[in-house]
Amino acid sequence: MSSDQIGAVDSQHEASHKFDYFLQICEDQGTTLYRKNVLTIGCGDGAFTNALFHHEAHVTGLDRSVRKLTDAKSRNPNITYRKGDAEHLPFERDSFDVVIAFGVWHLFDRPKVLSEASRVLSEHGTLLIVSEKVISSNESSETASFFPEEWYEEWEETKWNISNQWSVEDVSSKWFPEKTFFQNDQKLNQFNLVEVETHYNCITLRK
């Protein structure tokens, strides 16, 4: 595999296929996103938000990075994007049916985000938190554990009820470069390819 191919392993087509599979599992687990008003916080370059759009969700993406929002808008100009942070959501009360934090929950001031999510969610709204864990072929899938204990404690303290939790294994393997060092060899900083898969640990919370 060439270096050009390495850069292409996570193409938009593959990302779309991956998220389509993920969204179908969500539906199977009872988390309906189809035609719901959905907010993704920390939406980044919009890959997941775009998948939600094609899943016919009425989706809004939020991120504090202007550069990432520009990338997201160029990916799909039909999606609504807002600049802002998850601790101070720029939306009215009861604006959304679902709030999603995909791979970003550890970055936030979580109690503040829980308060804001409670405010902008409708009466029977859902907070979906997804944590990504990338493991290599020589690791046990058991290393893809669920969430830190302190997160469960925070949810309990703030009176959020756990509706469901599940894990999704990536439908396809990927190859990533792994740096390898050789002692007594001039070929230092050599990269090998290692097979990896992504596990998505998911939990839905209700007010």
TrEMBL record:
Q: One Pfam family for this entry, by name?
A: Methyltransf_11
Name the domain of life.
Bacteria
Q: Which InterPro entries match?
A: Diverse_substrate_MTase, Methyltransf_11, SAM-dependent_MTases_sf
Q: Which UniProt keywords apply?
A: Methyltransferase, Transferase
| Annotated ranges, domain Methyltransferase type | 39-129
SUPFAM superfamilies linked to this entry: S-adenosyl-L-methionine-dependent methyltransferases
Record carries keyword Transferase: yes
Give a yes or no for keyword Methyltransferase in this entry: yes
Give the UniProt family note: Belongs to the methyltransferase superfamily.
Name the UniProt record assigns to this protein: Methyltransferase type 11 domain-containing protein
Q: Give the source species.
A: Pontibacillus salipaludis
